[in-house]
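Database export, one record per block. Field names are fixed; values are copied verbatim from the stored entry.
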Amino acid sequence: MSDYRITAPVAEYSGNTGGCQFANGVYQGPVAPGPLAYMRAAGYTVEEIEPEPPHDPQATEDAPALTLPAKAAPKAEWVEVAVRAALAESPDVDETEARTKADAMTKDQLVELLTPKEGA
């Protein structure tokens, strides 16, 4: 069943029609075919709602901030953080390529790359 936004012909209508609970003339949600046909015939305004795209767990807006290892931590920890940072910055980044680039850097270069600059 698709979701719909249905507006009753009477703007103040609050009640149940065909299993749909209207409030102030508006219902939003799934509707069975029978009640949907009735509402269309009775002058209700019916709009099919586009489903929201599935949540992308790699979306940068939801990504937690990276925690940097201690400067004395082994290079491998800095490489892992560099790879996660590259993936968070762009989901199109190839993880193997990001790891290869990070592995080619020295630990000091990784620290410099990943440590936020003062005043930035």
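Remark 1: The first strand starts at residue 3 and ends at 7.
Remark 2: The chain is about 35% helix and 15% strand.
End of record.
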